[in-house]
Protein: Outer membrane protein beta-barrel domain-containing protein
Organism: Lacinutrix venerupis
Amino acid sequence: MKKLFFTAAIAVLGFTSVNAQEDVTVKGFEKGDVFISGAVGFGTEKTGDLDSNVFNIAPKAGYFVSNNIAVGLQAGFTSLSSDDNGVDTVDSNEYSVGAFGRYYFTPATQFSLFTELGVDYTSGDNKLTDVGYDGFDIAFAPGISYFVSKNFAIEASVGVLGYSTSEADFDGAESTDNFDVGLNLNDINFGVVYKFN
């Protein structure tokens, strides 16, 4: 009787284990998947009488054209403001719109590494000086994605290589060009991903 009970217990545990494994393996990406992602951030800093605030939002939407490659569109909005003892010193907004491509190394698994190349058109304005600017950014960044459920994942990316140029909207303005290489903890971006079935 003990042997029969032991055999039945092993069979029940084995069946439960197989069902649990089937539930776990439905994670990751594959060709034809559509996803939306985005990041929202807010920061504040105070030095003496100087108060500074920054807010940004960056939604994305992508489509897997193959099992490893996703392409998509992205947008962004950033607001910067600061005041010194109640007097505004910075009050500006920046808008961006662009496209991106990603290569996932293990897209069908719960955890995957990816690289992303993005290109954005940017436009901004300074409300205090009433001067705007236009430009574009190119950025390459590695990242990681981790599925916490069948449809939701969290991701993080780090800016490593980037080039940007911008020019103010007035006669005789010269462009400002920036080229960045390296890891900077300020360039780590976290986001949430939703995958449609």
